[in-house]
């Protein structure tokens, strides 16, 4: 069942975020008519759904969707990239409906504060039947307003020296962050409900 969630996925490089996302996309591809992976360049890692634990998924290709074809795209898993992030975000905001969208390395699109357009896009996600995942490398990089309007934080190990004050309303996040940091398992993660 579609839930129209806004999900934050946070962890430092090499903690398994991409494999986690690929496994999730593979498992739920029958639920989502369209899945879009957004990036600023043609990343090798998103050319297929191959993961460390599923090398056979190399044949599950994630095709490139040209930006001008987004308006007519109907089904499947695709990736879109453009160095002009403003243009790309405008197209996604104008033409995305009934879609699961992963914003790979979201700091490239969002910055420290949400723009009016991005805020509207996130707040209108339920009306457009969108599920959104924003991927960050540190808790510090996530804008406070995005934290407030998100539903779930999937936390991997981060290099944050301390928890930013913007998380004060969720005291269990610091306990979870410290537990993850102390673990010998580099790929450990924990989902946290934010609402």
What do you see in this structure?
This protein is α/β, with parallel strands linked by helices and 195 residues long. The protein has a domain at 6-132: Rossmann fold, CATH 3.40.50. It contains six helices and eight strands, in the order βαβββαβααβαβαβ. It has an eight-stranded mixed sheet with strand order 3-4-2-5-6-1-7-8.
Largest sheet report:
8 strands, mixed
Whole-number average pLDDT? 91
- Major beta sheet, strand line-up: 3-4-2-5-6-1-7-8
Q: Structural class, from helix and strand content?
A: alpha/beta
- Estimated share of beta-strand residues: 15-25%
- Helix segment tally: 6
Q: What separation lies between the terminal Cα atoms?
A: 19 Å
CATH class assignment of the domain at 6-132:
Alpha Beta
- The helix fraction, in percent, is 25-40%
How many beta strands in the DSSP annotation?
8
The CATH architecture assignment of the domain at 6-132 turns out to be 3-Layer(aba) Sandwich
- CATH topology of the domain at 6-132, by name, is Rossmann fold
């Amino acid at each position: 069942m579609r839930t129209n969630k806004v999900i934050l996925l946070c962890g430092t490089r090499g903690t398994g975020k991409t494999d986690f996302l690929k496994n999730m996309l593979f498992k739920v591809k029958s639920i989502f008519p369209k899945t879009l992976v957004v990036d600023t360049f043609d990343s090798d890692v998103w050319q297929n759904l191959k993961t460390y634990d599923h090398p056979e998924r190399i044949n599950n290709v994630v095709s490139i969707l040209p930006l001008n074809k987004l308006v007519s795209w109907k089904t499947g898993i695709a990736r879109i990239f453009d160095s002009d992030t403003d243009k790309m975000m405008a197209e996604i905001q104008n033409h995305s409906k009934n879609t699961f969208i992963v914003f790979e390395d979201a700091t490239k699109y969002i910055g420290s504060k949400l723009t009016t357009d991005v805020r509207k896009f996130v707040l209108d996600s339920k009306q457009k039947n969108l599920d959104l995942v924003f991927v960050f490398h540190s808790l510090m990089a996530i804008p406070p307003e995005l934290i407030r309007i998100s539903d779930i934080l999937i936390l991997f190990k981060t290099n944050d020296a301390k928890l930013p004050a913007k998380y004060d309303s969720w005291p269990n996040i610091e306990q979870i962050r410290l537990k993850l940091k102390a673990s010998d398992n580099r790929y450990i993660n924990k989902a946290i409900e934010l609402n």
